[in-house]
Amino acid sequence: KKDRYAAQPMTAFALNYDVIKPETGAPETLLHTLRPANTFATYYPLHEGDTTFQWNERERVGARSLYLGNQSVTPRHVSGERYRADFPAPLQAGQTVHYFSTCPLVEGAPPFYVEDTHRTVYPRGLVVEPYTLGEDWVVGRWVGQTPIESLRVVIDGQPTIEVRPQSDPNGAYDFRYFLKNQVAPETEYVLLQAFGKKTQPETEAPLLDEVHLPLLQKGWLTSPVYHPGDTQLPLRVTGNRAYLQALHSVVDGQTVAVMPLDVEDKTNISCPIPAHLTPNQHWVLEAHDPYGDLIAQWTPVRAHERVWTNQPTYYLDTKANLTLGYIGGQVQHVFIQVNQVTVTKVPPTALSPEPTTSWLTLYLQNIVKQPGDYVEVLALDAKQQVLDSLTIPVRYTGLTLSAAQHTENPTVVLIEGRLDLSAVSATHWTSPKTLAAWAQRMEVTEGAHTWPIQVRQMEQDQADSIYRFLLEVTVDASFTLPSRLRLTLSNHEQQPLMSTEHTVSTPIIQTLTQFTAQHDHFLSGTFHPAIRSRFAGKIILQLLVDGQRQGTSTYWDPTELTWTHYAFNQLTTSSQRADLEVSHNGQVLEVRPIPLYAAILKSISTVRLGQAQTLKVTLAKASESLTSLVLYRNGVYRLWR
User: Fold this and answer.
1) Superkingdom, according to UniProt (predicted)?
2) DSSP sequence for 302-344
């Protein structure tokens, strides 16, 4: 096919009754029992723990049905030929998924089967690294309980030669399968299969497991090294842009951000670096195609660090110890300086000589006393030459931000927060008397840029030392979203006392309809037209259930102001905490709570004015228990009796 992501209809055909032998039965019987000799679909293998089933189907059929045992599951279209079904719970080994589809061939004729397949859920067996095109080997490991006898690769339905892996002394199988020049960028579907031992010479070997093998394009993602403190990574994206749908930022196997990629995007883009990324964390950038499949990946290289801490700030009120990480063998001395005076020296005997990551505990309670203290850690070699250094800011806790919202006015950002000064020493703080004086103590920055602020509210809350405040930040055309603002509070001596950050959110969701669990299938709503127009490219919607991402993301173009999002299998009870996460270019714009209800009330009788009557309420069969009914009249509730 010219376009691998476009549906390719199968060729229609018909049966001539004259060539059907009488003993085969009537045409209606034949069409009911006819099955295709070759499948028109490719199915992704199912494994224990999976929550989705995916397949590529070559024909837009009339009806699709899918069952997990006796439980019906709704299939849905993803893109092109890709279809998907989401299960309400993780699959277990040995379960069977039955999928079949029918298509009316001729008007008036009974439907015939296009697809009819039973797919078994495998126990975990094959663990395979994605294969990069042009490399020699596919590398993997067998972790199943049953020994394997042979492996083979199936490329677009065509099996290749079987190979016999060798086990190590512990019985584990680490294998390599030569695949160079056997697959190409046009290859659509590759399976790796593992077979067990034959029970009889004339029987077929049992298939123990099969996995879909991701094919990665080489050189599609590249970047220079990045340094500690960097917030953006210059990323070069090449290759066929029609194949690139989204860029996933993955830290230690967890997706932390998703950035949609448009065909018209430039070759060089800026990718946000995950906040608080440490040297011992593994960061990978993954490119996914319109089906959601992995097609390219890149591991950014971190500039070599020799010393770092587990948290970037030392707090005078909590006085928590800091953990110092360093590269053993290279670092021979560690000095701690306060206000450029060396106050502590860590001797070489206390440092690890091994060339690996090692750790020290820093006790700063007796050497750091003031919020204005300047603390620096120096890593030195055997000749006491500086290899690396880091600065540790000294602050108090107590400053928190609950919201930073870009309003409909593009020049205004409103910040809400709470200030707790109860732990601050009286010698380090005197309270301002006016809102203007409070504004002099506060600074809002975005990177190296400082934005002017106005304190609109500063009110004491419960105790004299606790305040709730509202700030108005004035920005200009250079301010772009997504963005993260830092608020710093200084004391009367202009020493930084507290600081915190918050991502600027945007009320881009204009309407969000309520959702009834076990009844509604889709969330729906609209985008705010004026705010949506500020963001070029796609907006991503993601469902959060009890704080965890559930289901798949949906992507919406700038011209689409009305949106829907599938949530039937994820939102099952009204007691769940449900939110809709809205993101753009890998940054969250807004997290909107979803009004969640249960389908409990089936019907309510009509009220006739001026008559003594009984109000009849019929309850629907629901999985949730009902504790009470409340009757409202003119906005005033009356307890149901």
Assistant:
1) Bacteria
2) BPP-SEEESSS-EETTT-PPEEEEEETTT--EEEEEETTEEEE
